[in-house]
Description:
Blueprint: E1 2-12, E2 17-28, E3 30-34, E4 37-41, E5 47-53, E6 63-66, E7 71-74, E8 81-86, E9 92-97, E10 111-114, E11 121-126, E12 132-138, E13 150-155, E14 164-167, E15 173-179, E16 182-188, E17 194-200, E18 207-213
Amino acid sequence: LELGMNQIAAYDDARNRIDDIRTSLRAGTSIAFADGSFAIGRPINDSFLLASPHRSLDGKAVHIDPQDKSEQARSGALGPGLDPDLSAYAKRTIVYEVPEAPPGYDLGQGNVQIVPPYRGGYRLEIGSDYHILVIGRLLDAEGEPIALLAGQAIELSRPERTPLTIFTSRDGRFGQQGLRPGRWRIVMPTQPATAFEIEVSDNPSGTLRLGDLRPISKGDMQ
């Protein structure tokens, strides 16, 4: 909602007083639709963007192009955040943040580039199922840390998806963002390769701490 007020006063020199005061109030709003979502916000000049939180964020507010004490748009009771000031055919980088997101939640790059069409709209969903930070320590069959290696984390329900790269520290510890709930297999390029399987749960904090992990046997791999 956009509000404006204007007041004009006329001064009568002959009577040495103000003899006419006029006050006007202006209100403007818009209802925007894009890809099944709608929002109420400020008047749209050309193109627009709707930004809403993914369900895993539990309704936490999305801030678009945040400044020190304000933002271009914010999601909330009136629906997704509505940015009404996009220019058609002009590349624009949209910066977003969710200040109340869980500390370990993976929001991605924090920005997206778009080229708005003429009088068109975008729908942007912030967050995804792949948002969990997993922390653990990889040990070999003898209980020694698997140190300073880069392995892969494979989602077992979607093996065709590009694996995530996992790095271990000198004592075998790792911290990997971008996992979603379900079973994952971690494969480390030792000689021979060492595999682990983990169950990722939907932790409200956004961070899952697994502690020390032991490898699975080849007979357990399917």
